[in-house]
Write a structure and sequence with these properties.
This protein has 150 residues and is an alpha+beta fold. Helices cover 17% and strands 33% of the residues.
Length: 150
């Protein structure tokens, strides 16, 4: 009995200390949320389409059903805005939104921009439903890494 209490206390303490990656209540129930921001594409920022497309945001659907993202928006702190057209994100699926130009697929969408959106040092991504309700935000403030797991 003492071991069980000690183990439970250790798990609880680790969770409060942030050592365990427990899901947030929204993610535990399932959500559509920001998963990753790759904000500093490799190499020098000269605006080549390949470099622009190496800057991206990944959105994940952890719900038990497909979700229509038609009219949903992804913005940065400077209000660069990407609006989803007709698009459905399947249950358990990811979609990557690239900054540059390309052909949209079920797993990759393209903003069609000719310059970078995500700052290399700090920024905030915001995902909103078509009605303007904020779904998720993810911020970073570092030049030590090239990406942020949200």
């Amino acid at each position: 009995m003492l071991r069980t209490r000690t183990a439970a206390a250790a798990v609880t303490a680790a969770a409060f200390a942030g050592l365990l990656a427990l899901p947030s209540p929204a993610q535990a129930a399932g959500s559509v949320h920001l998963y990753k921001i790759y904000y500093d594409s490799p190499g020098t920022d000269r605006g080549a389409n390949s470099s622009l497309n190496a800057e991206y945001v990944v959105i994940r659907n952890t719900t038990g059903a497909a979700v229509s993202l038609k009219g949903w928006t992804l913005t940065d702190a400077a209000n660069h805005k990407y609006t989803f057209g007709t698009f459905t994100l399947g249950k358990g699926k990811y979609v990557t939104i690239h900054t540059g130009k390309g052909t949209n697929t079920s797993t990759h969408r393209y903003q069609g921009r000719s310059w970078y959106v995500w700052n290399n040092d700090k920024d905030t991504a915001t995902l909103k439903k078509a009605n303007g309700t904020r779904v998720d935000t993810c911020s970073y403030n570092s030049t030590r890494a090239d990406y942020k797991m949200c």
